[in-house]
Amino acid sequence: MGRARGSGAPGAGMPRTLSASEMVTPGSPGPPLTEHTEGEQAGQPFLDGAPSSASLDTLIQHLVPTADYYPEKAYIFTFLLSSRLFIKPQELLARVCRLCIEQQELDKPVLDKAQVRKFGPKLLQLLAEWTETFPRDFQEESTIGHVKDVVGRIAPCDEAYRRRMHQLLQALHQKLAALGQGPESLLGADKPISYRTKPPASIHRELLGVCSDPYTLAQQLTHVELERLRHIGPEEFVQAFVNKDPLASTKPCFSDKTKNLEAYVKWFNRLCYLVATEICMPAKKKRRAQVIEFFVDVARECFNIGNFNSLMAIVSGMNMSPVSRLKKTWAKVKTAKFFILEHQMDPTGNFCNYRTALRGAAHRSLTAHSSREKIVIPFFSLLIKDIYFLNEGCANRLPNGHINFEKFLELAKQVGEFITWKQVECPFEQDPSITHYLYTAPIFSEDGLYLASYESESPENHSEKERWKTLRSSILGKT
């Protein structure tokens, strides 16, 4: 994975962050003026190098480079991220290429070589940033055809352009091949099992028998998290919430293209159930108490590392009803450390404590000198919720029909920060035996967890007794 992209030369990849200070850096002269649509004024205020609202045509024009103009990096990322709500990426690329050809007169038999040599590097830079940050936009062969066509028109002025295009397409092919081997398949066949549908010995092998060191397990969980995050494209955050555009067609631009995002949510749920299964499985309460204390220590190490997603999954697993009802077991646990972790992940005040800790980890990441200090793995479900409410709370278009670009700058800021975090190289050595166990160890269904819990500590009230009776009848076939 290497260092976070954006730390090298200007123009390489997407911006490291999308902070306000970077976005307002003075850029090149603006794009060529186009005729304004009705209600659009030339003197409108600009926000971070782009209009706070504008027509789709104007925003596309602002993306197109010329011999004397190149859009700011923050604008490129923001528009490419949000534009898919209004136009398919393949159609956008076709329009960008067509504008380049028209404005630079690349369809004429004789080209202005001096002009093309000023324009060519900027066009290739835009294509490089686009393919690097949103490679899935180029999965269709027609998009590659547009790239080859427009670059082929400028290649006679400098053969280096054609070589650069081949390098760009080769890197794109490798990236798409890597993304095609996403981790979602690892959980594809994973399904919670009912309690004791097989002989106990064949159901389970304790996690403590595979890894008894909390720090090591926290490191391996971080490996899993970063591996899964690496496959989530920034566009998935937008495509998860694609709604009908009231001024466009009656259908959304995209079907759901969020398999990596969904697979990551499944991983969180699996880890919750794995923690609960490991705690409920042992027959002796002393062993169950040991498992709880072990997971508390793992969660604390995850917090220290900056792996908040695994931390929340562990805390959630320990707070599941089949686990929390084990009063005799919890009586043997030193709960002070657990309560501290619960406090950190308390949902009160819209997760105020967690957000404070996340800001601290993010600040540490920005000033870090090692990959170990750069790690920030946010509580993913809350990140999705924040993005969802940002999307729902502001209209995509204003009453005059213009696109609300100010909204999408905020969206890009949140997504861009996450994309920076997911690119951190994991500094811990991977232990395949532990990660394999995390992915493949059987987990109980909710009913299975309750049965295991009731067998460990008998039902205490009428409601629990009735539930136990029903579960034993339905799952174990007992009367």
From TrEMBL:
UniProt KW keywords: Guanine-nucleotide releasing factor
Phosphoprotein as UniProt keyword: no
N-terminal Ras-GEF domain: residues covered: 47-177
Region (Disordered): 1-48
GO cellular-component term (any): plasma membrane
Domain Ras-GEF span(s) in chain numbering: 213-459
Biased composition (Low complexity): 1-16
UniProt keyword tRNA-binding present: no
Entries under SUPFAM superfamilies matching the protein: Ras GEF
InterPro entries, sorted: Ras-like_GEF (IPR008937), Ras-like_Gua-exchang_fac_N (IPR000651), Ras_G-nucl-exch_fac_CS (IPR019804), Ras_GEF_dom_sf (IPR023578), RASGEF_cat_dom (IPR001895), RASGEF_cat_dom_sf (IPR036964)
Molecular function as annotated in GO: guanyl-nucleotide exchange factor activity
Domain of life: Eukaryota
A Gene Ontology biological process term: Ras protein signal transduction
The protein's name in its UniProt record: RasGEF domain family member 1C
